[in-house]
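Quick start: read one record
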Amino acid sequence: MIARSVPGYELLVPMTGLLARRYAQAGTRIYDLGCSLGACTLAMAAAVRAEAVTFVAVDNAKPMVEACRATLTAQCKAPVELRCEDLRQTRIENASVVVMNFTLQFVEPEFRARLLSRIAGGMVDGGVLVLAEKVCFEDAESQRDQTDWHHDFKRAMGYSDLEIAAKRSALERVLQPETFGQHADRLREAGFSRVERWFQCFSFQALIAFK
């Protein structure tokens, strides 16, 4: 379903694996926070070449964790520590790569800075945070265009106008997007030295923050 809703998702997943390969350090941990069915965990486990790496996949929905467990058991050769817990409670330790793909946007804004600071504090020097989010735009015309283009994409993927409207109404209650500038400023304040935007398709962007 996410591939039908998020343009570029099928590229984001393997690219996350390649980024993890580049920045993973031997003897460290790699976290997938908000792992869902484990697509990014699988991509990273297949791509990473660093030795003695521990993968940690976290989601707060028990059915999702169980489905992820079945997927990893069938398809993943690397050992993965799978946790069912609120990622705000997840202890980040000795991490060289942390991934949060379309996860932070569902965390209440007042908790985001604290969460990112805790992630940065648990990372080794040279570690990276890979963060994909739906963002918003300060300019009203830009926001309108991005929304229209995204809706055109969803229609092309088979969604009806009624389904698009219903999905938008449901997400407005739980998804609170921010601008790229807000994300970048918060990441730097959390302890990351540099923030780069490495992907964008309409209002969906992926960032990488360097510790």
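DSSP finds eight helices and seven strands in the chain.
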